[in-house]
């Protein structure tokens, strides 16, 4: 039900410099009949004046012929799904069209639509829920070609993944109110198996003899740095088409002082993108002791050409979808400019609960 594309060749020859091709806007053929083969499309936007963030996301399990999609908007009024300004999620919706075109698709079950206007560059995304007085209409104009990061490194062990910064304009209708959108934000896509349960006969992987690579520092930071817990932290912020950053934080490789390296991403300065130097780019996070969510961050970024950027950010609103970490709308100070973006702070709920208990300890 999916088409082949030129990016599905021998993964061993793919590097961070391998460009994406126009066919990468379409679905990709699964190499087998794995029911957990998944393909995603994600679009984000923000309205800084309202401290408001928004997502449209879909995961297609194309070998099963289903799609799970969600649309939501959050602001400081509340972070749980039932408190959000808007939240809708539909799971395992049958795909009536068994050979859909991701370049021009209306996601079944009342989902959002995506229409490619220019390959790998410009798109129109639309969604409407008249009963809730809600709609979003976005035009995404790419600032640069999609970026590929090094295959075979966490968190992209099997995934092909792209990120792209865009100028996002349009309109949000929220409880009947029309709100203009004019921001810089990110889209991403990935395709690979995901979500498969462990097979009954599989032997569990041996736990690290010491889950903390660099012991020391506050106990809550030690718990956060434990390896093998599935922690992912994805952060980005931009003040326009000429300055900003994006990166994946390797929390488990952080030091006792709280500084964690970034192993993928970009630095954007003077309108020029360059990959981050993963040996010299670090982030330190300060958490809200009430919620455990990210509250304040410092970044020291260096790219492969030696350019540097010091960044400081504060969270202004959150969504907590699964009871662990949160996604935060972030306000960033970027070399004298104010930018906006996100912190996607992903935890296993039990791991997060242990960290929060240590962060709130009184003895």
Automatic annotation (TrEMBL):
- Domain (DUF7064): residue spans on this chain: 233-341
Please give the superkingdom of this protein's source.
Answer: Bacteria
According to the record, the residues making up region (Disordered) are 192-218
Per the record, a Pfam family?
DUF7064
Domain named DUF7065 is located at: 23-194
Matching entries from SUPFAM superfamilies are given as:
AttH-like (SSF159245)
Q: Indicate what this protein is called per its UniProt record.
A: Uncharacterized protein
Organism equals Mycolicibacterium pulveris (Mycobacterium pulveris)
């Amino acid at each position: 039900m999916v088409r082949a594309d030129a990016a599905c060749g021998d993964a061993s020859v793919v590097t961070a410099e391998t460009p994406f091709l126009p066919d990468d806007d379409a679905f990709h053929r699964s190499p087998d009949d794995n029911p957990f083969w998944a393909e995603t499309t994600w679009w984000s936007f923000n309205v800084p004046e309202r401290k408001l963030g928004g997502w449209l996301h879909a995961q297609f399990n194309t070998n099963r012929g289903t799609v799970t999609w969600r649309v939501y908007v959050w602001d400081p009024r509340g972070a749980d799904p039932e408190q959000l300004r808007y939240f809708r999620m539909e799971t395992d919706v049958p795909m009536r069209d068994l050979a859909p075109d991701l370049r021009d698709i209306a996601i079944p079950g009342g989902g959002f639509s995506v229409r490619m206007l220019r390959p790998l560059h410009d798109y129109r995304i639309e969604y409407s829920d008249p009963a809730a007085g809600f709609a979003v209409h976005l035009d995404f104009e790419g600032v640069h070609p999609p970026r590929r990061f090094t295959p075979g490194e966490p968190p992209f062990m099997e995934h092909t993944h792209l990120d792209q910064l865009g100028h996002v304009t349009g309109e949000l209708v929220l409880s009947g109110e029309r709100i203009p959108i004019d921001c810089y934000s990110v889209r991403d896509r990935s395709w690979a198996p995901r979500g498969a349960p462990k097979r009954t006969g599989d032997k569990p992987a041996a736990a690290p003899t010491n889950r903390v690579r660099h012991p020391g520092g506050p106990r809550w930071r030690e718990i956060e740095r434990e390896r093998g817990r599935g922690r992912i932290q994805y952060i980005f912020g931009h003040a326009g088409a000429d300055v900003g950053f994006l990166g994946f934080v390797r929390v488990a490789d952080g030091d006792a002082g709280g500084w964690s390296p970034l192993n993928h991403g970009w630095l954007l300065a003077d309108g020029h993108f360059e990959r981050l130097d993963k040996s010299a780019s670090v982030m330190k996070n300060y958490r809200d002791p009430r919620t455990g969510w990210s509250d304040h961050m410092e970044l020291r970024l260096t790219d492969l050409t030696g350019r540097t950027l010091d960044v400081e950010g504060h969270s202004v609103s959150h969504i907590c979808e699964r009871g662990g970490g949160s996604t935060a709308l972030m306000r960033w100070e970027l070399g004298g400019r104010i930018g906006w973006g996100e912190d996607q702070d992903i935890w296993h709920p039990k791991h997060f609960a242990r960290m929060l208990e240590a962060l709130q300890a009184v003895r």
